[in-house]
Amino acid sequence: MAIFSRNEANRNGHTVLQVTSLDSRTGEEELEQLKKAGVPVEGPVTACLQARHYRYHKLAEDHEYTVVIIPGSNVPPEAGSTVEGLATWASKTYKYARARAGIALRLRDLLSVSPELMEKLKLERIIVVHDPTDTRKEGARVFGVRVEGAEGFLDAYAEDETAYGEGTGFAFIDLHHVWSKRS
């Protein structure tokens, strides 16, 4: 569960979402919650959430995360289209860091109650730039979210499938606010 307390632009003109993680769910618990909510979960998403090392991707309990979303149209070609290239570019250019994969699940929750956010951002999907979740069956994957109708969905892309353009945004963590303990 999470609280979204802010939706504004930062000093760079990027959309900022303040996410407070109230609990620290395992991948299995996240999968169970998605199924309870009636969200269709595809094979790669299931494989990522069931991966043994997902525990390194979950959010810390009772922490605030400042999530920034950069439209793909603002990413220069030299950044590349891999997680590594995007993360390096965002770090050098804006001092943004890779997110944890758990951010994607909280973004999906937000989009399920506020699907108009994607329309406001003029995006079709948001790829969360995090260390890829390695699954034996599906390979290395990163999570993304999208909206269809009024429902938020979770996807898992091969780490080199992060092609961007007008309809894609990328989520990072703003290093100026990461890991601040909620008071």
Outline the secondary-structure elements.
Elements: E1 2-9, E2 15-21, H1 27-36, H2 43-50, E3 63-71, H3 83-94, E4 96-97, H4 102-113, H5 116-121, E5 125-128, E6 133-135, E7 139-148, E8 151-158, E9 168-174, E10 180-181
Parallel strand pairs: 5-9
Antiparallel strand pairs: 1-2, 2-3, 3-9, 3-10, 4-9, 5-7, 6-7, 7-8
Helix pairs in contact: 1-2
What does the model show?
The protein is α+β, with helices and mostly antiparallel strands. The chain has five helices and ten strands, in the order ββααβαβααββββββ. Strands 1, 2, 3, 4, 5, 6, 7, 8, 9 and 10 form a ten-stranded mixed β-sheet that branches. A hairpin with a 2-residue loop joins strand 7 (139-148) and strand 8. Helix 1 (27-36) packs antiparallel against helix 2 (43-50). The radius of gyration is 15 Å and the shape is globular.
DSSP strand (E) fraction? Answer: 25-35%
Instruction: Compute the CA-based radius of gyration.
Output: 15 Å
N-to-C SSE series? EEHHEHEHHEEEEEE
| Principal-axes shape call | globular
- First-to-last CA distance: 17 Å
